Known about the structure:
This protein is mainly alpha-helical. Helix content is about 50%, strand content about 5%.
Amino acid sequence: MTQCPAVDERLSAMSTPNASQIATITVNGRSLNCPTIVGSEGEIGIDISRLRAETGAITLDPGLGNTGSCESAITYIDGDQGILRYRGIPIEEFQAHPNFVEVSWLLIFGRLPTPEKTDRFSAALTRNAHLHENMKHHFQGFPIDAPPMAVMSAMLNALACFHPQFLEPDDISEDDFHELAARLISKVRTIAAYAYRHSKGRPFLYPDPGLKYCANFLHMLFSQPYQQYVIDPEIEAALNLVLVLHADHEQNCSTSTVRIVGSSKANLFASCAAGVSALWGPLHGGANVAVLDMLRAIHEGGMSADQAIAKAKDKKDPFVLFGFGHRVYKNFDPRALLLKKHCDRVLKLCKVKDPLLDIARRLEQAALEDPYFVERKLFPNVDFYSGIIFRALGIPENMFTVMFAIGRMPGWIAHWKEQHAAQGRICRPRQVYVGNQLSPYLSPDQRPG
Length: 449
Ligand code: SDX
């Protein structure tokens, strides 16, 4: 698999260090001149791949906040300016005509699809919406209260059993990849719908080949055996927008996980299943559920916004202001701005008055005026408003993070493909060992209490 030519040229150009951009690292008198790589937007990366060989030292960067793992041409974020672009296109450009299938193609194949390519990809998504009948039986093995993210991760891995032709990354042609991407993007939606139906004890409904991506998902979630769910085009558009806004976010925890797993040449199903597991955590994709729990606790506890803020600032208090803060954004998360803007429209559309939205607004206002949050540049992130929109759309709360996984699937696929095309080395970080020095084996009677 190769990148599209424009991307290939840019990536190779980025790897040619300019002599004036050399970083010198000196450790115990031993110096290394490190070449630097300057990205398309001017950010500088210091290539330290010779550091250990030349100086014997490694870097240490817990949380990897200062460490680049790769060169990538998929998504650009400027955290200080609150900029997010998919293949160079600002996300704000997608809100007028949100089309998750088109954005998926853009992220994975590097450019906006022609109408023919969009039609071909849509047809592949429709063709691949079903799950193998044997896969459906696996759902019966889960308890009805099984966490949907556990079901999702397990069933994505299980796809490898039913699509063996995609298990060897080196054997996948560009055409095959088109089919593989369509299978994953289409089936992740069906798996999510079936996980929900299983949790409600409802029969699984087959996808309707006459419906587009989001409409088909709503149908499989909410239709009854003898009564088709009525698709409101505006609700369908709102769901497209929310999925578009979740589609990629460069080297976040779950996408980095997909790249790390993929770096061992594990197949795409296994890599995305690992991505789901990383996304599940409340510091990452699980925050959209944690935000609702937090807002509800504030509402039911009769807490004021200021009292909640005080608790969030108190290091001794376990209360966390979920939906606030971000490793990269030190300005508004542009996705939060768009979701906040669309919140009102979706609630009006769904004829929902949600008291939690009022609390969210008061909380945001209070936090943005509080020195603790201002000094630390803590702003609302993508998860702060997404849960309120999902709730208004009728998506059950235990499915919120699954919605994030559906949205992020094209990003995971795009990064796995980009990494595989670059034929990079297996990801295997170093460590600084701080454990026992050489110690003898002690027989049981010699061991201290
Ligand atoms: C996502 O990486 C991505 O791109 C992720 C994502 C994507 O699209 O993939 O954008 C999706 O995961 C969004 C984030 C969702 N998580 C939450 O909303 C959970 C709440 N937020 C925090 O846990 C935190 O802000 C993180 C995890 C998002 C970021 O953590 P960092 O970068 O490690 O920052 P930090 O914990 O070191 O915080 C720096 C300071 C600390 O205070 P001091 O030690 O300086 O005194 O800010 C404080 C933190 O205590 N802080 C908060 C806070 N977030 C950070 N204080 C109160 N409430 C918060 N929410």
